[in-house]
Design a protein that fits this description.
The complex is a heterodimer of chains A (153) and B (223). Chain A is an alpha+beta fold. In chain A, 48% of the residues lie in helices and 12% in strands. Chain A folds into 2 domains: 43 residues, no CATH class; 96 residues, 3-Layer(aba) Sandwich (Glutaredoxin), CATH 3.40.30.10. Chain A is elongated. In chain B, strand 7 and strand 8 form a beta hairpin. The chains are: A alpha+beta (153), B alpha+beta (223). At the A-B interface, helix 2 and helix 3 of A face strand 7 of B. The structure holds iron/sulfur cluster (SF4) (2 copies) and FE2/S2 (inorganic) cluster (FES).
Chain lengths: 153, 223
């Protein structure tokens, strides 16, 4: 393997596992003969790579121009607050992961989120709660998440 | 050694070796040019801090002095309105992501940011840029030093000496844009990284982001 193969190799790993496990990054670094932190740098530089396994439910919030103008950031903030994770992260129980995407092609429904490949339109903070509720994020395990997160950080 | 040539910086005639980088020639002649990222002897300077701009006769726009090779007869100006504007903007951007608190900082008085502010008259911002959320995490895990990312200017000097001089490869950059930071593999703390605590990175840090711990004070009764 040569350094120019780094990105294609990372792409293949992500295709296979759905994300880039740290162990895999270490092996790649060993193969290339470069410090592991250098491979880590490349993996975190590019938006297309994720370092956490995707959640059971994948939520993608649109940040295209129309959605952004119509309050996409508010929707994203609400998801982050409710799930207690940031973009590119997965809840500790593996249920939800959060991404931001560029235009998904239905600007008339802005702001839009794609939840498990289904387009949700007009995603207001109330709608965020509704979506999460329908996916089983109940009040009670929301509390649990708060606790487990408090320990984790 | 390459041949000696004569150049002019701010009206002063200076003799220097052809091909040497302008930044070091100016500094060695007592002419100050702001700089954070360059290290003497680098083959390919990263030119990332964008602070060492100068104007060189015959070149259209300002150029970075850390990458500009010395050529016979070159005429350099270190202060022009265009240069000053670039430097001021870069400096203000740095401060918008800096936990500024000099009087409680270990580098107070020896800090390169303070030098730049003094030399270029960039006092406290009357109209500061919107600050980024302060990074509050501090890594105190190494036995001998501390890493405080809230004071890091992302110059990359520590990364360069870690990888090129010490040959360890414990630290590097991660992320990009406003998420860019100096970190270890998997964002572990330094004690869990391959870091050998050689201390080279601490010595090259131009600001208060990497600093040595004070030796534990002996209290009365210690033998
Ligand atoms: S790093 Fe420099 S500018 Fe920043 S607080 Fe410390 S002394 Fe002040
Ligand atoms: S820790 Fe210091 S040397 Fe390293 S990038 Fe930050 S400011 Fe530069
Ligand atoms: S010293 Fe030239 S760009 Fe940083």
């Amino acid at each position: 393997m040569q350094e120019k193969d780094l990105i294609p190799v990372l792409e293949r790993i992500q295709k296979k596992y759905g994300y880039l496990p740290l162990q895999a990054l270490k092996s790649v670094a060993r193969e290339l003969g470069v410090p592991a932190v250098q491979v880590y740098g490349a993996a975190t530089f590019f938006k297309q790579f994720r370092l956490n396994p995707p959640g059971k439910y994948q939520i993608e919030v649109c940040m295209g121009t129309a959605c952004y103008m119509a309050g996409g950031q508010v929707a994203l903030d609400s998801f982050e607050r409710r799930l207690k994770i940031g973009v590119g992260e997965t809840t500790p129980d593996g249920e939800f992961s959060l991404e931001r995407v560029a235009c998904v092609g239905c600007c008339n429904l802005a702001p839009v989120a794609v939840v498990d490949n289904v387009v949700e339109k007009n995603v207001t903070p109330t709608r965020v709660d509704g979506i999460l509720l329908s996916l089983g994020l109940s009040e009670e395990n929301k509390e649990n998440k708060e606790n487990s997160n408090a320990q984790g950080k | 050694m390459s041949k000696k040539v004569t150049i002019t910086i701010d009206g002063r005639r200076i003799s220097a070796h052809e091909g040497e980088k302008l930044l070091w020639v100016a500094l060695d002649s007592g002419i100050y040019i702001p700089h954070l990222c360059a290290i003497r002897g680098q083959d390919r300077p990263p030119a990332g801090c964008r602070l060492c701009f100068v104007e060189v006769g015959g070149r259209l726009g300002p150029v970075t002095a850390c990458t500009e090779p010395i050529r016979e007869g070159m005429v350099v100006r270190t202060r022009t309105p265009r240069v000053d504007r670039l430097v001021e903007t870069a400096f203000r951007l740095l401060l918008s992501d800096h936990r500024l608190d000099c009087k409680n900082c270990t580098k107070n008085g020896r800090c390169e940011l303070q030098v730049i502010a003094r030399e270029r008259g960039l006092g406290p911002d009357r109209d500061p840029l919107q600050p980024l959320p302060a990074k509050t995490y501090i890594d105190e895990s190494p036995r001998t030093f501390v890493f405080d990312p809230g004071r890091c200017v992302l110059c990359g000097r520590c990364v360069w000496v870690d990888q090129q001089v010490a040959g360890v490869g414990a630290i590097g950059f991660s992320g990009r844009g406003i998420r860019r930071r100096v970190t270890t593999f998997g964002d572990s703390n330094l004690a869990e990284s391959p870091c050998t605590e050689c201390g080279l990175c601490v010595e090259v840090c131009p600001v208060g982001a990497l600093f040595f711990k004070l030796p534990a004070k002996k209290t009365k009764g210690d033998s």
